[in-house]
Structure formats: C-alpha cells, structure tokens
Amino acid sequence: MSSDEDIDLGDIERRMKGAVDALKHEFSGLRSGRASTSLLDTVTVEVYGSNMPLNQVGTVSVPEPRMLSVQVWDKANASAVEKAIRTAGLGLNPMMDGQLVRIPIPELNEERRAELARIAAKYAETARIAIRNVRKGGMDQLKRMEKDKSISEDDHKMYADEVQELTDKFVGLIDQTLDGKEKEIMQV
C-alpha cells in the first residue's frame, strides 16, 4: 500500500485555501468608505416566504462613488429590500424611490473605522482557527497511519513537516489579507 494514496496533501491545501477564500468574501462585506456592490453581498431579503440573497431580488449598481442603488425587480419586494439593508448591521440608511432603493455611503468616522478593523480581525481569527483545524485533522490522520503501520516514522515526520509548511503559508496569507484590509479601512 502506497503512503501517497493515504495522505492527501492536495485536499489539505484545498481546504486551507477555502478558509482564505471565505475570509476574502467576508472582507468584501466590510466597507471602506467607497461604494462597492460587494458591500451588499451578505444581505439577505425575506421575500416569497424565504430568505434570498439581495442579488436574486434586484440589480445592485454603483451610480456614484459614494452611492449604491438596488433596482428591485418586483415592486412588492422594494420595502423588504430596504428593511433588509437597514437591519443588516452595515450602518447604511437606504431610501426608497419607487422600485429603486438608493443607499448613500456615509463617510467613515474614526470610531467606525476602528470598529470595522476589529471586525476584520475577528474574521481573520476565525479563518486561522479553520486552518488550524484542517492542520489538526491532517496530523491526526498521520498519527493513525503510523500507528496502523501504513507509513513509517520518517514518512510521518516528512508529511507532518509538509502539513506544517502549508499551515504557515496560509496563516501568512491570512495575515497579509488582514493587513491590506485594515489599511483600506483606515485610509481616509
């Protein structure tokens, strides 16, 4: 039995990359004072008896640098869209204009910037924990394989080093991503 088939470093790397991708998606919902359609990616609207992502009930656009707009497809859902944006915890104050919901993006004050930086740090720590959990799963698998004699002690050490290298690489990537997001948030 080949040890290469038992420990899948590609799978471990894919799962760690997934944690980084999830972090980047979370960061896209944190605003930095500039209008961006991704700001509303996390907003869900209660329509037709279920919660739907905002982009499935209307078209989100950026008509001006400090303004977002949502063209709601069904007029009956316009007030639900406005309510969902207002209660999403993004600090936005949408205004109805028929089927169009206008969302001015206010200047970020220093207090709000610091709060967003703390939220970003929390998201990053969640991603680091996810990566450490993937690492732990890989290390546990290696211990079982050595115990079952399907890999040698030397192979265990070699694979453990590779898993640790992947962990260090992806935790470093998270730190870089967080650093970039914090700079973006604090930029006036």
How would you describe this structure to a colleague?
Keywords: Cytoplasm, Protein biosynthesis. It is found in: Cytoplasm. This is Ribosome-recycling factor. InterPro entries: Ribosome_recyc_fac (IPR002661), Ribosome_recyc_fac_dom (IPR023584), RRF_sf (IPR036191). This protein has two domains: 3-27 and 109-186, Orthogonal Bundle (Topoisomerase I, Chain A, domain 4), CATH 1.10.132; 34-104, 2-Layer Sandwich (Gyrase A, domain 2), CATH 3.30.1360.40. 54% of the residues lie in helices and 15% in strands. The chain contains four helices and six strands, in the order αββββαββαα. It has helices spanning 9-28, 78-86, 110-147, 153-186, and strands at residues 44-47, 50-53, 58-64, 67-72, 95-97, 100-104. The chain has a four-stranded antiparallel sheet with strand order 3-4-6-5, with helices on one face. It has a two-stranded antiparallel sheet with strand order 1-2.
Short overview:
With 188 residues, the protein is of the alpha+beta class. Helices cover 54% and strands 15% of the residues.
Instruction: Tell the overall outline.
Output: elongated
Number of helices: 4
Rounded to the nearest angstrom, the radius of gyration is 22 Å
Q: What oligomeric assembly is this protein in?
A: single chain
For this structure, what is the CATH homologous superfamily of the largest domain?
Ribosome-recycling factor
Q: Which CATH-level-2 architecture of the largest domain?
A: Orthogonal Bundle
Main location: cytoplasm
InterPro entries: Ribosome_recyc_fac, Ribosome_recyc_fac_dom, RRF_sf
Family: Belongs to the RRF family.
Keywords: Cytoplasm, Protein biosynthesis
